[in-house]
Design a protein that fits this description.
Blueprint (H helix, E strand, L loop, with lengths): L9 E6 L2 E6 L2 E7 L37 H8 L10 E2 L6 E2 L4
Antiparallel strand pairs: 1-2, 2-3, 4-5
Length: 101
Amino acid sequence: DFPVDVWAHHAVTKQGPRLTYFRNGISMGKQVISSGLNHPQPLYFGGDQDRESWKGRLDDVAIWETALPPESIRGLADETLKPNTAPTTSGGVGNFGTKLT
């Protein structure tokens, strides 16, 4: 269940075959997936190919090169940890980058 009419921080990390979902910096569950990252389907934010849409707005979308540890996820959620650089787009839609210390 997602909160309604309130801001919430959502994050997903992938370490090996394990996905961990965080809401507001707290781990809400884990799932093991069998497929790798080399999948022919695109990565969607806010909707999918079947036109199912997120009810709300997305802000500060970021993709990191490595899975962030839980304490970094908490820091981003409660805004005690800030990226060194603002997320940028380059090279086309969906190419995001930033640095965190």
